[in-house]
Amino acid sequence: MKKSILFLLVAIFSLPAWSDGVTIDGIYYHRGYQGGTSYNYYEVQSVDENLTDAVILEEVNKMPVIKILSGAFSGHANLKTVSMPNSITSIEYGAFENCTNLQSITMSNSISRIERNTFEGCTSLQSVTIPNTVDQIGWLAFYNCTSLQSISIPGSVEWIYEFAFSGCSNLREVIFDYSENIIKIQKWRERLWELSQSPKAGNKQMFGKTL
Fold it and tell me: Which residues lie across from 74 on neighbouring strands?
């Protein structure tokens, strides 16, 4: 009897960490966990290296998927498109770093910031529409996105940090929703882009004015 109880206890406490995780269509979701407590939500932790088109689920096991962890998609050269639901409220830093074939991404309308290095080195990304819930674009967020030609920034954005668009040598168009925050952006315009290195940059025009 004692041996049976001991065996049961060993089995329970030896359960692997992935017992709270599940892979669906090439995306590995793990239940939120911190300090010994499991939470009623899931996070995107990693993806299959052969995945080309990622569609992130809104729910897993009737719990919302709310976060993409740091480096979850990083370095996946086969990835071409990403679609995320509005249940996603957080994309951690470097989540899509060096996805060199990523061409398009549909972001959640529930995120409040684009963290540092999120899309760094996504050299095939051509255009980006930032949700109107975002108020910050982090350091090196789009660094070296050499195919990026157009980006749409909502009026909700208050801060664009250093080198956010540095190395975007083909960036031609920045569409910005006019708002009171434009003053803050103009004061920090050197943080918006560093196109002086590019002979194609021309006048560095935005909002119809030369910066």
Answer: none
